[in-house]
Amino acid sequence: MRTIAVIGASLAGLRSAEALRAQGFDGRLVVVGDEPHAPYDRPPLSKDFLLGTVDRESLALSDPDALAALDADWRLGVRADRLDTTTREVHLSDGSTLTADGVVIATGGAPRTVPGALALRTLDDAVALRAALTGGTERLVVIGAGFIGAEVASTARKLGLDVTVVEVLPIPLGRVLGPEIGAVCGELHLDHGVALRCGVGVNEVSAAGVVLTDGDVLPADLVVAGVGAHPATDWLAGSGVAVGNGVLCDQGGVTNVPGVVAVGDVARWSGQRHEHWTSAAEQASVAVRNLLAGTTAEVHDRPGYFWSDQYGVRIQFVGETHLYDEVRYVDGTPEDRKFAAVYLRDDVVVGVVAMNNARHFTRLRRQLGAAPLSTPAP
After folding, report:
1. What is the SS3 assignment for 26?
2. Where is the FAD/NAD(P)-binding domain positioned along the sequence (predicted)?
3. Quick one: which of 234, 312, 200, 226 has its CA closest to 45?
4. What is the pTM of this model?
């Protein structure tokens, strides 16, 4: 391959560019990113950056010298509009076209929006939200009790705002962590004076406030929606690249089109999208190796890992929760807001979760897939 285009300049795109050079690709490398900023870290946007304890320079994923060493053509503030896999051309929003032998799709996701509510996905979103939170806002309503919504609510409470969280599901994070641990996460909101409305949706955001499906109206100076994201695949229409809730790939990030791989939030590896920081970083080296090899020479089979910081509590999770039949606490208790627990299916460890218990979490995650469970030494 002489030219490789990486479409997407966030974590997955940067790690792909780094992996290409590390694995010996010395041809032309073009990185296209729809934001005007150099690659930056997204997780702090809803926490430290929103709180004002870190600045935008601290978010950089790489320093200028390291970026320069990649010898890449950075096309920032430019969007990929169309991919023609027949001519191997990527058509960009500035009217230019680039031709590439290989393409890494790393376009991530776009937030689902609610009219009248702010969303938080990008650095510019975070700058606008921080200005709103610190500009005289007293009452905040957060739509969605997922990780982004919960972290925004936590940060807003630290800033002294009155906060209400609205969640359409009966239990916050129930789909991700299961009902038992999800309920504990819901209690974190209540512990810190946040009003939590579960099992009710939003009809509209109006001048009067947030109108709920049960008829209640929540007064609000500011409304933030954290209701998930959808994979950014619109630009692939007509390309021949198979999509369906993400770019369809095998376990090595290889798509149905030769010379095209996908990584990060946009990629659906073997039927699953892993929308987490570690997955985006880890997938890059595997997909790039397969791109350069022209076949699936390596697969990524590590279980998904994520963390979330809410109200001074670090929540860590690894593995899967669907079809588990028992949650077993190994250390601590939910009441103490410090514990480590495992998800079991037929006495096999399929997941590990912890609150403020990194030591036991690290030990327990080594037992994924193991049976019987052995209890870590204190």
Report:
1. coil
2. 3-284
3. 226
4. 0.94
